[in-house]
Amino acid sequence: MYFISPIKDPLWKYVCTEVASMMGPRYVLKIWSSELGTFSSQEKRVNLSCQTEEEAYFLEKYSFVIISILQQYFPALKELHVTLNSK
Hints:
Helices cover 40% and strands 21% of the residues. It has helices at 10-23, 25-28, 53-61, 63-70, and strands at 35-40, 45-50, 79-84.
C-alpha cells in the first residue's frame, strides 16, 4: 500500500494500516491524508482534521472503527472530533 508510506505520524500510519486490513485498501484512500490531532482526556475525544467533505463524512460514519483502533493507546477515548481543514 504505497499511499500509506508517506504518512509521517506513526500512530496515524498504524490506524490507516489497521483500517486497510479490516475494511480493505480502498477505504484507506478516503482517510490517509487526514491528520490525527490531540487527545483530550477531559473530553475523552481525539481531533482529526481532513481536507474534503467526503473524508469528513467517512471519518464520522466509521468513527467506531477508528476509535476502536485508537483505544489501544487511549483507553478512555469515546469520540472523534472531525474538522474540515480547507487549504
